[in-house]
Amino acid sequence: MTSTLSTETTMSVPTMPEPVISLTGARKTYHTGDIEFEALRGIDCRIYPGEYVAIVGPSGSGKSTLMNILGCLDVLTSGQYVLAGEDVSTMDEVALASARNRRIGFVFQQFHLLASLTALGNVELPLVYAGVAPAERRERALRALDRVGLADKARNHPGQLSGGQQQRVAIARALVTEPAIVLADEPTGNLDSHSTADVLGMIDDLHAEGATIVLITHESDVAARAGTVYNVTDGQFVGAGTEIAK
Fold first, then answer.
1. Containing structural domain, residue 173
2. 3-class SS at 225?
3. Could you please report the per-residue DSSP string of 94-145?
4. Beta 86-87 vs 78-83: how paired, if at all?
5. What value does the CA radius of gyration of the chain take, rounded to a whole number of Å?
6. Which of 158, 167, 217, 235 is the most buried (most CB within 10 A)?
7. Within a domain: residue 220?
8. In 20-61, at which residue ranges do the beta strands (DSSP E only) sit?
């Protein structure tokens, strides 16, 4: 008697990576006396590692509140925000500050550079807060400045740099901690057209190198550089994220 051995072939199914940002039913309400204002009204969003996402809306739409939530600068009234696998609602002030420093690289419209520090000193700041030893933080800051083409300006103070150069220093500062997310809030709002193209090209390059980019803007042509665009109006996303054909 011959026995037949049957072998099952199991096909492997690719699994999606965990989102680096997950918002579920995100709501934020502000109170001023008896007046209640709901800035975010139940936003759902998933952003995955390596994505380039733009969030677009006019002034008063809720995008600045959303930026503050994503950057752990504010917390939700209700709903859930999970950042790189961690539920933000469970974090105390120390943990929130640590998440801001480790997980997120900020690029702001106003640069937020300290005039008293050199470009190198400004880029080193997140590493100072993280307790990195002086020799290591200097090496990492110089490497970040070189990455944005400003290694030769390390000893210059912000007042000795153009607007575009100051924003590049801010980008170097955002990258020096190797964050999970680069959160850029109107990063070209104070720049001329040449510097705007320069900075946006640099953000494109960061994305090409694998960085997760979240760009907040009111300009549709800037948003069009992203792979996915979310439009926010009156604290809500209008439709699902729109994938941009390249």
1. 50-74+93-243
2. coil
3. HHHHHHHHHHEEEEETT----TTS-HHHHHHHHHHHTT--HHHHHHHHHHHH
4. antiparallel
5. 21
6. 167
7. yes
8. 21-32, 35-47, 52-56
d(CA 89, CA 180): 19
Has residue 23 been placed in a domain? no
Residue with tokens 């390390």: 154
Whether residue 147 lies inside any domain: the answer is yes
Contacts of 157 (CB under 8 A, 6+ apart): 115, 116, 117, 118, 119
Joined together, the tokens standing for residue 120 give: 């190198």
Q: How many domains does the chain have?
A: 1
Query: Hey, is 198 helix, strand or coil?
Result: helix
Are 79 and 240 in contact, with CB atoms under 8 Å apart? Answer: no
Model confidence pLDDT, tens digit, residues 79-123: 999 998 899 999 999 988 888 888 899 998 888 999 999 999 999
3-state secondary structure of 177: coil
End-to-end CA distance of the chain: 63
Percent of the chain with pLDDT over 90: 62
Helix %, strand %, coil % for the chain, to 5?
Answer: 35, 25, 40
Residue 7's pLDDT band, with cuts at 50, 70 and 90, is: very low
Is 201 part of any domain?
A: yes
DSSP assigned state of 151: G
